[in-house]
Fold each of these.
Amino acid sequence: MTSNLRDYFKYNTLTTSEVSELLQIPKSKILSMVEEKVIQPLKVSAEGLLFLKQDIDGIIKDRSLKLPIHRIHYRNIMNDGTGYTNKSIEFFEENITKLGRIESIFIYFNSIDAVKAGFFKIYKNDEEYDSKHLYSVDTPSFVIRDVQGNEIWLGGCKCGYGGKGSGGSKTILKKLGLNQDVIDLIPYYRVINIFINDDGNIEIIYNNGIDRTSQNSRVVDDLDVSVLFSKEINNLVLVQEDSRISKNKAIDILKGFRSFIPFPKKILLLPSFDMADRLGYVVEIDSRDYFSFYNLIVVDSSGKQLWVNIPYKVDVPINSQDEICNILEYLGFDVPEEKMANKIVHLFNAAVSKKIDPEPIVFEKQKKV
C-alpha cells in the first residue's frame, strides 16, 4: 500500500469510537443509527465498523453543528471561569444540583481537543469586537452535561497526567458515583468521554486526542501553538506562537496537529511580511505593537485554518526549497514542476519592478490517490 493511500484511509475514515467522539453520542446509539440506515458504514467486520468521514460530516452539517461556535447558543452553560482545581471542585458542588440526570461527561488534557469538540467561548467585549479580527477562546477541561443539554464547565480538572488537575477529576467522578475502574482511567488518557444511559449503564471512549497524529504522544506539548477564533472566516485558526522566534519547524507543527486540518483544500504561500500584513495574517503579541507574521496558510475543507511561518526565498524556485516541498508533499499537494516554479519567481519579480502588490501563491490541486 502506498503512503498516499495510507494517508487517505487515515484521514478519511473513522472508527465507531471516533464517530462517537465527533457526534458526542454513545457507540450503542451509533449502532442503532446503522440499523435504522441513518448512516451506512464503509466496512463491517468482526473487528468493528469503519465509516467515511464525509458521511459523518454530512450528519454534523444536517444537525447544524458544522461550526461548534453555534452550538453554545442553545445551551445553558455554567462556567467556573478558573483554572484552579480547588475552585473548580467548589463550583461543581455549588451547581451540580442545578443539572438534571447526567447524560455525559467530557474530560480533556489539551485545550485544542476541547475546542475541536465545540467546547469554547470567545474572549471579547462589545467595544473591541469591531476593531479586532482574531480572538482568544476560553475552554473548559471538564464538562458535565444533563439530558436537557445544560452543562457545567470546569477549568481546573483534567485528565492524562498525574497532577492536581487529574486529582480534581477523580474527586468529581467519585462524588458523581462512578465506579473506581472508570476513575482509574483519568491519569492515562488525554481525552475521556463518558456516556450514561437511562439505566445507569456507562460507556467510555478514551484516547490521546490531538496527540494521536504524532508518533510520540507527548510531542505536541513541545509545540508552541494557540487556537484563536477569526471573525472574518467565522471559524477557528491554529497559529504558531510568536513565529519569528519559535524554534518549532512548520512541518513539525503540521504533523503534530494534522487532525486539526484533516482535509486541507488550499495552501497560501505569501512572499513577504508586507503581504501577510495586508491580508491580515498577523497576530498581535502584546500591547507594544509587536506582531507575529505568517507566510504559509493551510485552509481545511471545514473552514479551519493553520498559520505558520517558514523560510521562503522569493528568488529561488519553490521546487528547490526543501521545507516547502516537504510540506506540500506531506499535505498531499503537487510540487510545482521546474517550468512553473521559475514562472512564479518571474511573476513576483515583475510585480515588484512595476511596484504592484504581488498576489499570494495558491496551491489547490491535490495528488490523486
Amino acid sequence: MDILTLLRAAKSAGASDVHLVASSPPMLRINGYLQVSPDMPPLAPDDTEQALSQLTTRREQEEFRNSLELDFGYSIERVGRFRCNVAMQQGTVSMVIRLIPLRVPLLDELRLPEICKELITRPRGLVVVSGPTGSGKSTTLAAMIEHLNMTESRRIVTVEDPIEYTYVSRKCIISQRETGSDTHSFADALRHALRQDPDVILVGEMRDLETAAAVLTIAETGHLVLTTGHAPSAPQAVERIVDLFPPHERSLAQSRIASLIVGILCQALVPTADEKGRIAAIEIMLGNPAVKNLIREGKLHQLPNAISTHGRAGMKLLDMSLAELYCKGFISYDNASAFCQSQGELTKLIQSMSQKSDEAKPLGSSKNGEGTAHPNNENNGSSPLTLSSDSISQRSN
C-alpha cells in the first residue's frame, strides 16, 4: 500500500480523517461518518508498518518503539498537512491521520460568530476553545490567528503537539514550535516564552497541572493566551481547568481564572441539512462581571443561567446556537436534537424563534408560501414547524 497515494485520494474525497488498522480496509471519515475507502482490500500488518516507515523519520520511529505511542505532523506539497497518531493494537501498528487544509480558513468562511474577531484582538487575558475531539477547535483557533495576522501587527508564538495549520507572517510575525522537535514540552516552552517578546501565545492544550499553571502565569503578565480543552460546555471547561490543580489550590485557581477569563467558546460540528458538510454550533461565555463573580465564588453550576440571561452581551448556550442554525435552515431537527444538551429547552427555543419570526413578517407573507413551514421543508422532507412540541418532534422520513 502506498500511503501517499491513499492520502491524496482521501483529500480528493473530502475526508477529514484516515483510519488504518490491520485486518480492516482503510476507512475515511467524511462529514463525520466513517466509510470504507473504495476498492481497498483489508490491510496486512506489513501495510501499516510500511505506512509508518513512509511518514516518519528515524528519530520518530525510535520514539515509537520506545513508548508505543506517537503523535507527529507530516506535509505533502500541494496536498496539505497531516496530524498523525500511531499506536499499537493487538501487536500491530494502527494509525489515525487527520487531514489539514493547506490554506487557513477565514472566520467568515466558517460562519463563526463575530465575537471571535473581538476576542482575538483583546490585548490580554485567557481565551479557551473547548469541545469534543474532532469538533474543529484547532480550525477555529487557526482562523482567529489568521484574522489577527491580516488585521493587526502582533508577535504570535504557538506551541503545538504537533503543528497543524502553518501560517505565513503577514502583519504579524508568527513562530510555531512543536513539542518533541522544537521543545521538550508545553511547560518548557512556556517557561521561556516571555523572553520571545510575545503579544499572543497559543498553547495547543492544557493537559496537565504544569501547563495549566504556566498558562495562567503568562496570562497574568499581560499577554493574550489561547488554548483548548475537551469539555462539552463552557462551565465544564472552567471546572476541568480548576480540577487540574490540587484541592488546596483550587480556590486560588478559581480566583485567577476569574480575573483572566475573556471568553470560552464551546463548539460541536453538526452535519448540515443537505448532508454535504458540517457547521459549528458554538456556546459563548464571556468574562463579564457576573461570570467572573460566579467563577471566583466557585458557583460554576450557576454559569448556564448567567449565559442565558446575558444574551444581549453576546453570550449563548449551545442549545440556543443549535436552535438558531435550525431556524435558519442550516441543520435538520434530528441533528439539532442529537447535539443538544436539553431536548425540552431546544424545543422551547425553536418555538420562541418561530413565533417571533412569524410576528415580524408582514401579514400574508412567507418564504415558502406556507406560513409556518421551515425553510428546509422542500429539501429534507421535514414536517412544517408550528408552535406545538409534537410537530417540532416529528422526524423526516
